[in-house]
Each structure stands twice: as C-alpha cells, then as structure tokens.
Amino acid sequence: MKLRLLYTHKETSRPVLATTIMKTGVPINILEAQMTPESGQMIVDVPVDNRRLKEVVSAFETEGVRVQEIVSTITIDFDKCMSCGACVSPCPVSAITQKTDWDIEYDEKKCIRCKVCVDACPVGAIAFL
Ligand code: SF4
Ligand code: SF4
Q: Which one of 14, 43, 96, 129 is least enclosed by Cβ atoms within 10 Å?
C-alpha cells in the first residue's frame, strides 16, 4: 500500500521515517519527497498486510504526521482506451499488462508512480491521480 505523508514544520526537522522504521521493523520505500523547512509531502510504499499497515499508520501519526492511503495512482478511462498497448512496454515495472482479449490490466502494488504510461497513451486515456 502507498501512503501520502503530510508534514508540518514541526515534523520536518525530526527523523520521522527512520523512527517509524525502527519502531515497526517495516522496510518503507520512499517513492517521492518534497520537503522545505515549513512543510513537506512524501509518498512511500509500505509492503505489508492490513494489520501491519495499521501499525505503521499509527506510528506515523504518533510522530505527528498526517497520513492518507493512496488507493490508486492512475485511472484508465476505458471509454477512451482503444487497447493499442502503447502504455504496456514503457512501464518499467510491468504494472500495466495486456490480457489475451487485448484489454489492459493495472496492478497498483507494482506501480512506482513514474508517469511514463500517461505520456505514452496517444488518446489521453490514463490520468495520474
Ligand atoms: S505510473 Fe509508471 S509504474 Fe505506474 S503504471 Fe504508469 S508507467 Fe507503470
Ligand atoms: S496507451 Fe492508452 S489507448 Fe493504448 S492501451 Fe494504453 S490506455 Fe489504452
């Protein structure tokens, strides 16, 4: 599951991520980070089941960080999609695949938020959320 972490100026100077990893023992992967002394936002991937995820969310919240779960990184508009496959091979982690009936399938767990598929689609069927 991916999480969006929202920092205020109070948390930006503290090792919130390191503390959460040490407390929970969960290896958290940073996908994006924008930090200034005033505030910040980080997108992290937390590779655990729901029970452990609650533990991680609670540890972040204890550190004062606001947490939002990211259910989906992209959406595919299947009314626009013409199953051309142009988004499949550019995806560096095979998060988009084409089924035998040519329909496109998306796996949120694999996605690393690179946006390559958004630019690859010739009809603008993929939106980045
Ligand atoms: S954003 Fe990147 S990783 Fe995610 S599905 Fe698109 S190409 Fe693949
Ligand atoms: S590139 Fe766009 S139109 Fe082509 S399969 Fe992917 S989503 Fe569909």
A: 129
Look up tokens 């992290």; give the residue.
44
Q: Which atom of ligand 1 is nearest to the CA of 90?
A: 7
Domains and CATH numbers, the chain: 2-70 (3.30.70.260), 74-129 (3.30.70.20)
User: Ligand 2, atom 2: nearest CA belongs to which residue?
Assistant: 121
Nearest CA to ligand 2 atom 3: 81
pLDDT in tens, 10-31: 888 899 999 999 999 999 999 9
Q: Which residues pair with 68 in a beta bridge?
A: 4
Taking the whole predicted model, whether its pTM rises above 0.85 is answered as no
Residues 6+ apart with CB under 8 A from 72: 108, 129
